[in-house]
Amino acid sequence: MWINPEDVLLASALWITERANPYFILQKRKGHGDGGGGLAGLLVGTMDVVLDSSARVAPYRILYQTPDSLVYWIIAHGTSRKEITEHWEWLEHNLLQTLSIFENENDITTFVKGKVQGIIAEYNKNQEFKEDDDTDKFKEAIAKFRKLFGMPEEEKLVNYYSCSYWKGKVPRQGWLYLSINHVCFYSYLLGKEAKLVVRWADITQLDKSATLLLPEVIRVSTRARHHLFSVFLNINETFQLAEQLANIAMRQLLDNKGFEQDRSLPKLKRKSPQKVSALKRDLDARAKSERYRALFRLPKDEKLDGHTDCTLWTPFNKRHILGQMFVSTNYICFNGKEETVCSLIIPLREVTIVEKADSSNVLPSPLSISTKNRMTFLFANLKDRDFLVQRISDFLQQTTSKIYLEREPTGSLTSSDDEVTLRDFNPKLAKEFLKEQAWKNHLTEYGQGVCMYRTEKTKDLVLQGIPENMRGELWLLFSGAINEMVTHPGYYEDLVEKSMGQYNLATEEIERDLHRSLPEHPAFQNEMGIAALRRVLTAYAFRNPNIGYCQAMNIVTSVLLLYAKEEEAFWLLVALCERMLPDYYNTRVVGALVDQGVFEELAREYVPQLYDCMQDLGVISTISLSWFLTLFLSVMPFESAVVVVDCFFYEGIKVIFQLALSVLHANIHQLLGCKDDGEAMTVLGRYLDSVTNKDSTLPPIPHLHSLLTDNGEPHPEVDIFKLVRSSYEKFGSIRADVIEQMRFKQRLRVIQTIEDTTKRNVVRTIVTETPFGIDELEELFVLFKTEHLTSCYWGGGTNLSERHDPSLPYLEQYRINVEQFRGLFVLLFPWANEAHSDPLAARFFRLLDHNGDALINFREFISGLSVLCYGDLTDKLKILYKMHVLPVKKLQTSDYRHYLKIWNQDSKSNPESTKNLPKLNQGQFIELCKTLYSMFSEDLAEQELYHATATVTSLLLEMGEVGKMFCCPGPRSQDHEDRDRDREGCPPPDRPTADCSARSQEPAEPGAFQQTRLNETLFTTAPLQDVRLEEDQSSPKEAGTLSSAAAMLTSDDETKDDTSVSSYSVLSAGSHELDDNKLQCEDIADDTVLRGDRGSLPHSTSIDKDWAITFEQFLASVLTEHALVQYFEKPVDMLARITNAKNMRKVGRTSLSFSDYEISLSA
């Protein structure tokens, strides 16, 4: 590329001059490519790789120099010889003669520099719409990444880091490239090159650890091996980016959501680091936004704009609290430096005034924000207050253009009429009244609604229990569901209306579980409560079809409905399923399995004396799923479990982990004495049944779990508030960010375990249907799935959800289209060859596509591969025959699929036998011949196979001609003739042609008429291969046979018109004769042999439509030739093909190994 001229003092240092003229010099870097300059070249090449010298200096450059000057100027550089040569030729053709006119060297230098700068400016102007904000240095790194690893342009590089890779005990210094779908390493030391490529989707473990020799190491583990990287300049940044990219890959495996770059990021500033790509900034912004949303429980689409240090005046304690202000599209948030001091959420929809107050020594750069509920928040010590005010004003303008539903607070939060009279005095009611008063006083002092100050005192009130009539309001507030409900007025009603009367798998499961949802509670013992539960669950199933409905959602939702209105319960369920318990309620309960793994890690750390015992009994996996999925609602008395839900909505998942650990700790001695899992579950069940809420004003509700336990001695009562307080005292040190780190580690393990389970289930299902062994099927499934994933990476705009649906049965979860099938066909199928595989693969794919949806699943793929590898001769020939009966080309997708379904229905309606196969007409027979010739073009016995094919072709031609003699045409009505002409595309009778001959009255099998019409409509023949005559020794009989076969592959009209095809001149007379309907051939010398060539021969346009052969004739003819029989019965080494496919897997434009590529060394 052209660059702004930079001066160079030493032009020859580390460079080799390849071209030169009086003004310009083209140079190549020593150590690059072949002939790199001996030892000096090796040292330079190693230095360029190890050191980050201008992104490992571009290997080619062009210098400018005036004859009498010692100063050189770099005006262009390039990563390839082709690129730099184009620049050099442009200089020679456009500038060289012009420069000779100038007399002053300074004028020449000024002119050249101005010309180059003009070219750069013009290029930037033309490419402005493609600007991706990447620096020139990073673009060079991208070019090198694609060249080194053969990646296509669709594979986006995120960043690269200098590090060492440990191969055994030897470190190799090089560069680690992190792209969206791959982690790659490259090293070049003293002429030895090392490369490593691993897909993120294949990683089973990614962690940062320390070893005895190395203080900090990043370990990347796959199913096959471990890879260690060390000596990073910033290992934390590298590891965080690797975590993000691995998470994206796991998300793609889980729900088929790939990565889409955010194009709305602000432009790169000039002061920004020179090695930061647009994708890296995008991922950094995503990570910050995720932490921001999790911290303040904000909607999933909220994006953080920025944050700054500041202080907040808190009126309740008259102090300035140090913390950070966060500004996003719809919210202003504050969090104190100390986690529990104070946090604040101000929705912009509530803001009325934003103004800059007067600065003072005590209060520098203050900012005042007022809200609709007459609260004023005072921030100070803002570094860039003017810019911040401008950003908030911009967001406010966007917010005011939206119309939000103003929600009136309910009486439970504002009423002051509640009194407890002596006549109705009840200790529980009195305590409940005191709780309400405490909350009302707190809300009066700290603010009501979303904009309240959240402090340690708020947390203490939650731990003491939320009053019954305030629970729904506070759940909405603490969970953040209130924000989504207010900003989506009418959304729930619309969903309910759309989902009414709709039936699918989710609604069936909902109906089945409706009466199992808190059946002991009176609210769900009548149709009103059941109907409300039905509407909420069905509405959510239609909102999020990826989740739909999962067991345990009914229990949680029924509790939400007890304390909130229908719409409020719906938005609480949204917050629960999509933000607070991610992936818990999908079809595989992945989130619950991940947190089960996190719980095991926490148990090992906090109750180590119990961990081994619990692992041996297998209890942790059992209890954690039931506890976590229902938030203890299914295992604890109702009035106690809602207290857990109170804490959960305020503190998040850490409360559930703390409580679970506390339950284990309280029963540690009893659990250590258990002999089996049943006894352990009984101990825990009795303990949880005994957890009571003595402050509850609710009437006693029988607990279903306790009713199912045995009649053993009950456990002493445990107060729920003491249990919760104890969990905070003993395990309160668990932090949310630590849980997220542990979740990432477990997510890799769980999703890869699910993938392995899927593979085993597929193999177990299909192993009895195929001769392949278990190991072969597992390897083939991995290859099949990899082909799907590769298309997900680089497949363009295809709809990936159609081809991967985790809710489908195992065998149908991954499906591939014809393009993907072609890649596997070349690697695995015995009939494939590099030159002519595409047409054959397309035919085979259409044959396997039974339902005509242009996709095949793994079972269909294996069924076809099994026949070609292990089928007998008849089965293989039947496959080859059926390929050519199918329609060849689709004109429109809908028509193609319609006809293909008709063909498949016809083929399924008859038992699979040779007699039921349709006849092959002349056009299809020509295509079959071309396929045979192309299959043999790279075989070792090529000549012998061509001889045999020619003999079989001649024999079949004669059979077809003889068959016509037995088809006696009878009288036909004019209507029949007109219909035949319309179907065949023949002209009217006043323009007779030889193509419209009398039709055979031979009865056809069912569906034969449809098949004939289908072929006539969609069939388009591909060019034939050239047929070349070579001198060889063959008998006169063989020569006659060969000439008959050759005659079938051409026509007299085309050969007479095209005199340029000299190799066909000997065949020109062997065309169809209209008078006697017989194929004639000129004599061919005894020493001629027919061979396939890479050229093409125009096919005949005058196809005899009465000519046809059957499969029995085709089979019998092939059996007469030993060479063909030997070819089709040749054994196939499938393991060798699979190994070759893994080693030669094509990624982009170069051949790399399959998934976990070995370090390859080349001298």
TrEMBL record:
Q: Biological process GO annotation list?
A: system process
**Record-linked SUPFAM superfamilies:** EF-hand, Ypt/Rab-GAP domain of gyp1p
Listed Basic and acidic residues bias regions: 973-985
Q: Which PANTHER family match?
A: PROTEIN VASCULAR ASSOCIATED DEATH 1, CHLOROPLASTIC (PTHR47666), TBC1 DOMAIN FAMILY MEMBER 9 (PTHR47666:SF3)
Q: Return the protein name.
A: TBC1 domain family member 9
**Keywords noted in UniProt:** GTPase activation, Repeat
Concerning Pfam families, the annotation shows: GRAM, RabGAP-TBC
Q: Which residues form the Rab-GAP TBC domain?
A: 465-652
Q: Name the source's superkingdom.
A: Eukaryota
Any GO MF annotation of the entry:
GTPase activator activity
Residues of the EF-hand domain:
836-871
| Taxonomic source organism | Gadus morhua
Read off the PROSITE patterns from this record.
EF_HAND_2 (PS50222), TBC_RABGAP (PS50086)
Q: Where is this region: Disordered?
A: 970-1015
